[in-house]
Amino acid sequence: MAARAGLKPDGSGRVSCPFGYADLDSAVRGLLSTGLFDAAIRATDRSQAEKEVAEALHPHLRPDGTVWMPNVFRYLVCVT
Questions:
Q1: Domain of 20?
Q2: Taking the CB of residue 2, how many other CB atoms lie within 10 A of it?
Q3: Which of 7, 27, 59, 80 is in Cβ range 3.0-4.6 Å of 67 for a Cys bridge?
Q4: Tens place of pLDDT per residue across the chain (80 aa)
Q5: Contacts of 34 (CB under 8 A, 6+ apart)
Q6: d(Cα 47, Cα 41) in Å, to the nearest integer?
Q7: Number of folded domains in the chain?
Q8: Alpha carbons 80 and 69: distance in angstroms, whole number
Q9: Contact by Cβ (8 Å): 75, 1
């Protein structure tokens, strides 16, 4: 894709950027505030979307109540 855009790849890598929240409520509020769940809220309602996101976060809930989601971003450095 970079070559088609007239760019020459010059390096790449990965960087760890986990998502961490103090508690489940903070995680739900934080994730819903991104706008990524707006369509789900419109299709149902906010309380249903909150419930579904909270349920999806349970595997990431730690014994101390924090929510920790490992996440890795890949990047590509290009030159013209």
A1: 3-79
A2: 14
A3: 27
A4: 999 999 999 999 999 999 999 999 999 999 999 999 999 999 999 999 999 999 999 999 999 999 999 999 999 999 99
A5: none
A6: 8
A7: 1
A8: 36
A9: no
